[in-house]
Write a structure and sequence with these properties.
About 30% of the residues lie in helices and about 30% in strands. With about 550 residues, the chain is of the alpha+beta class. The strands form five sheets. Strands 4, 6, 10, 11, 12, 21 and 22 form a seven-stranded antiparallel beta sheet that branches. Helix 8 (about 155-165) crosses helix 11.
């Protein structure tokens, strides 16, 4: 059968006028950005990003913790180091990009916590939700019949159920409809409380670390055996104050390194020379001008004046004496040498600006137990970190040391651009070699140099963090909140009494868990069993 010629299968398509969306405007965009920033997904992403951003801090030496390592890195990588420094990779934890991630995470956590806290307190004050109409859909559902002949002597079923649930620390509420009376109960709000405590404590850690870094300081000092240092800014080799640091934050005290004892492995050939123990015996004075002796070990700092003094490293400080041609002492000091390898082959710099006919600079190599490196050039090396056969080798330079230019120079470097080498490789004079107690002539008749005792030095790190106690408190709260949120179940239970036509009651029991709760069915069964036992108990006379 053919269709009429004017039949229309479908209405003709209308022209799409296009979807017109309202313009957000500046305020709308700010709200959208705030919602994105304060989402839990963003907070987790920023937390992961912060962990990734902290990785360079373990790959490159940091000025705040290892200034000597930074100096060494610059000397070994003169082309790469300035580029890395522009990206603040030697000051990772105070860099602009790390601080930006830190502050964004801080803001994100605040934006997450405030609405969740408000919602949690409102939920805690609200009544348990109304009993569902069909409990058969809930977990652990079961129904039991209370015969009509037992109802007269049995206690009220719903009141009994409410008492049972209250004793189990449930919040309860009664509901009634045309055919039934029920009690709705819930517990486990401590789970969400623990979750909030975890996030608030995490925020507290971030705040404490930030404030502690702002009001605290760290300083490093190389102290030779028998020498002391005082807790003042000029005394430190390097000093890194927080943004809000003031000189009044420095408690007056001093530390003298009496001796530094190091034990090395000597029996095991495969681990020969491995350090077994570092022990610095020190004498402290103050605050309050009280003196006492103490011991500093690795990971066992000295607590004094609100600071912790850590033993970071050690090395050798040969006592070097330089005399002019008339025998007058123009330089006499124990010079710390920086270890270059595990066998403590060490590098040091000696600068003699006055007293000789020319300014003299020396680059020294100290070998605690000298040996042949095995190379074709016959270079020396150290075969053991202990002082079995110490030798000091010196390359000598003369000229302008640049100390009078007004530009501060590091004691752990020597700029040879304006110096002429007069002893060492590339010259007609061999490098000067000395053993303890020896004296040799300086080139060009400049005078003599004497090597005295070989002392040890300790690299001490002084760390003051006024918020470290709060960090510990918040860390404990983080653990407590996490455990609470993991092991406290959030669940709801219902007990409903439905009237039957024959006068009996159908008692229905069911539960619902928020999240994983493997004990939910057992909890429903336990309530049902206890309830049935109380209802079937004979009345008291």
């Amino acid at each position: 059968m053919s269709r009429p010629s004017d039949h229309i299968d479908a209405a003709p398509p209308r022209e799409d006028p296009g979807v017109v969306q309202p313009t957000l405007g500046p305020v709308g965009w700010l709200r959208w950005c705030w919602r994105q920033l304060t989402s839990m997904r963003t907070a987790l992403f920023l937390l992961l990003l912060l962990a990734i951003a902290a990785v360079p801090g373990s790959l490159f030496p940091q000025r705040g913790a290892d200034p000597n390592g930074v100096t060494k890195y610059f000397s070994e990588n003169p082309q790469l180091a300035p580029v890395l420094d522009k990206f603040q990779l030697f000051d990772v934890y105070t860099s602009a990009w790390f601080s930006a991630i830190y502050l964004l995470l801080f803001a994100s956590l605040i934006g997450c916590i405030i609405p969740r806290t408000k919602h949690h307190f409102e939920a805690m004050r609200a009544k348990p939700p109304k009993t569902p109409v069909r409990l058969t859909r809930m977990a652990g559902f079961q129904a039991r019949i209370l015969p009509a002949e037992l109802r007269a002597d049995a206690p009220d079923p719903i009141e009994t159920a409410r008492d049972i649930l209250r004793r189990s620390r449930y919040r309860v509420s009664l509901y009634q409809d045309a055919r039934s009376v029920s009690v709705s109960a819930e517990r486990g709000y401590l789970r969400e409380t623990g979750n909030l405590v975890f996030h608030i404590a995490l925020l507290g850690v971030l705040l404490a670390v930030g404030l502690g870094g702002g009001f605290g300081y760290t300083g490093q000092k190389v102290v030779v055996e028998g020498q002391s240092f005082v807790n003042s800014v000029p005394s430190y080799n390097s000093f890194n104050p927080g943004r809000f640091f003031t000189d009044s934050s420095l408690e007056p005290f001093s530390v003298r390194v009496d001796s530094l004892k190091v034990q090395y492995e000597t029996q095991n050939k495969n681990a020969k020379g491995t350090p077994l123990d570092y022990t610095a015996n020190v004498t402290t004075t103050g605050p309050g001008d009280t003196s006492s002796t103490a011991v500093i070990k690795v990971n066992d700092p000295l607590a004094i004046g609100g600071t912790n003094v850590y033993l970071l490293g050690n090395g050798y400080a040969p006592e070097i004496t330089v005399r002019d041609t008339k025998g007058k002492v123009v330089f006499d000091d124990a010079v710390p040498f920086i270890a270059e390898d595990a066998q403590l082959t060490s590098l040091g710099w000696v600068k003699v600006p006055d007293g000789l006919s020319e300014q003299v600079g020396m680059i020294g190599f100290f070998y605690p137990t000298v040996g042949d490196s095995g190379t074709a050039a016959g270079a020396l090396t150290s075969t053991f970190p202990g002082l079995n056969d110490p030798v000091l080798s010196l390359n000598v330079y003369v000229g302008d040391l640049g100390l009078d230019s007004g530009v501060p120079q590091s004691v752990y470097s020597l700029n040879t651009d304006k110096l002429k080498q007069v002893a060492g490789p590339g010259t007609s004079t061999k490098a000067l070699q000395l053993k303890p107690g020896q004296t040799v002539e300086l080139p060009n008749g400049l005078g003599t140099i004497h090597l005295g005792d070989i002392k040890r030095y300790a690299t001490l790190d002084v760390h003051h963090d006024p918020a470290q106690g709060w960090v510990l408190v918040f860390a404990i709260l983080i653990l407590a909140g996490l455990l609470t949120s993991l092991f406290v179940p959030r669940r709801r239970l219902w007990v409903k009494a439905v009237e039957n036509p024959d006068g009996s009651l159908t008692l229905e029991y069911a539960g619902l868990a928020r999240g994983e709760d493997p004990n939910l069915v057992a909890a429903v069964t336990a309530v049902a069993d206890e309830h049935a036992a109380l209802l079937s108990r004979p009345p008291k006379n």
